[in-house]
Here is the input.
Amino acid sequence: MARIGFVGLGNMGAPMARNLVKAGHEVAVFDLSAEAMARVDGASAAASAAEAATGAEFVITMLPAGKHVREAWLGAGGMAAAAAPDAVLLDCSTIDVAAAREVASAAGRLFLDAPVSGGVMGAEAGTLTFMVGGQAEGFARAEPVLRAMGRTVVHCGDAGAGQAAKACNNMLLAISMIGTCEAFVLAERLGLSHEALFEVASKSSGQCWSLTTYCPVPGPVPGSPANRDYRPGFAAALMVKDLGLAQQAAGDTGAATPMGARALELYRRFVEAGGGETDFSGIIRMIRDLQPP
Ligand code: NAD
Here is the structure.
């Protein structure tokens, strides 16, 4: 079992750290919020992020955004300087590809970007998917630790490749969800039942995860958020964050992603109208409202 420092005990980080404790690891935790510090029974409370990193074989951050990650690792009293030279450093936050590469390069040792998908439920159940970028040696050492928190662990390439995979996947998800919502709304205008559209599209070329697992209308997929008034799930505000990161990456690389740009516009509008805490499939309501009478 390993000594692990874990920093950032929010909605995702706290259950992830609990799963590390459950797997028998010795975990030292730190969060700026005292309330968050109390969320991980069985872990020892560090007085600072640097203290959590000191003496650990693996050091993990799960923080809101790139600026927090940069500051925690590289700022004054930063964790990169405090960690042992042979420790594996991991950032599981969702941040922009450029910041992930910058932090990994400045840390100058085994450093992995390892963002997740699966949400709070996946974090609690230990079934997250980890998309990992960074050195093969770091990945080989970290994989068993990640498996205590997730079911699928994929090495995507060099530094930043994990964040790149996350940005591409979530842009695709947003586009496919909007497309699925538009198909149901068009079916409504045509007098075609939700059930008939689902029955056909789920078995033909329109088939996708947004339809078959996360269906945005109630009925065809009983577990989807549409059946519980679009309670998340995956909140639309987080989708706006991820689409923003994808557009930032597109801008940085000169990639044209017209549908990704449009998806960001539509999700921003949904969030500005008060939908931020609604599941992202709830955008079907806004698409219905766009219809002329
Ligand atoms: P959160 O806001 O609930 O938690 C972030 C925690 O970090 C807070 O407890 C905060 O006090 C702490 N923190 C901030 N700066 C700190 C610092 N310098 N030192 C120590 N602690 C600090 O966020 P979350 O929902 O847990 O998400 C964390 C990351 O995971 C984000 O990057 C998010 O995009 C990503 N993510 C979230 C979900 C989800 O469903 N919530 C799913 C996939 C990925």
